[in-house]
Amino acid sequence: MKVLVLNGPNLNRLGTREPSVYGSTSYSELVGRCEREGAALGLEVDVRQTNHEGELVEWLHEAADAGRPVVLNAGAWTHYSVAVRDAASQLAAPVLELHISNVHKRESFRQHSVLSDIVTGVIAGLGVDGYLLALRWMAEHGEQ
Ligand code: DQA
C-alpha cells in the first residue's frame, strides 16, 4: 500500500523554524524517518511538501483518484482553506490530519480546523513522532 504524506506551507523549514514549537528535526530528516518507518511497516511512503496551495489541492485530487490514504499536515491552511477542505473531502481512503504542535494550546486562531470534521482522525502535539504513529495506524487501517 502506498501512503501519501502531504505537508503544507513552511514545513520545509522544520529544524530551523521556531524549534521551541516544532522541534529540531529537519524536514529532510523527517522524510528519512517516514521512509524508514514505512519500509519497516511494509508501506510505500511518498512524502511531499509545498508552499503553494493549488499544488496541495492537486496532490489531494491525485490521492482521491488513486484511492490512496493520506497523512495531511496542511500547516496554516488547516485553519482557513476551504479549497484544501473540499479537496480532502473527496478522499475515500482514510485521511489523518496531523500537527506537530498541540494547536489546542496555542493561539485561538489555531484552535479551529476546517479539516477536523471531514477527516478520519487527528494527531496533534506529539512532535514529528506523530507522523510515525500515523503511518503505523495506516499500516493497520489504511485499506479500509
Ligand atoms: C502546524 C500547526 C499550524 O498551526 C501551523 O500553521 C503550521 C504547523 C503543526 O504541525 O503544528 O504550519 O500544522
From TrEMBL:
Presence of the UniProt keyword GTP-binding in the record: no
Reaction catalysed by this enzyme: 3-dehydroquinate = 3-dehydroshikimate + H2O
Keywords: Amino-acid biosynthesis, Aromatic amino acid biosynthesis, Lyase
Alphabetical GO biological process terms: amino acid biosynthetic process; aromatic amino acid family biosynthetic process; chorismate biosynthetic process; quinate catabolic process
Pathway: Metabolic intermediate biosynthesis; chorismate biosynthesis; chorismate from D-erythrose 4-phosphate and phosphoenolpyruvate: step 3/7
Signal peptide, first to last residue: none
Pfam families, sorted: DHquinase_II (PF01220)
Enzyme nomenclature, EC number: 4.2.1.10
Binding site for substrate: N73, H79, D86, I100, S101, R110
Transition state stabilizer, annotated site positions: R17
Active site: Y22, H99
Coiled coil: none
SUPFAM superfamilies: Type II 3-dehydroquinate dehydratase (SSF52304)
GO molecular function: 3-dehydroquinate dehydratase activity
Family: Belongs to the type-II 3-dehydroquinase family.
Biological role stated in the UniProt entry: Catalyzes a trans-dehydration via an enolate intermediate.
Subunit structure: Homododecamer.
Protein name: 3-dehydroquinate dehydratase
Biological source species: Haloechinothrix alba
Gene name, Swiss-Prot/TrEMBL: aroQ
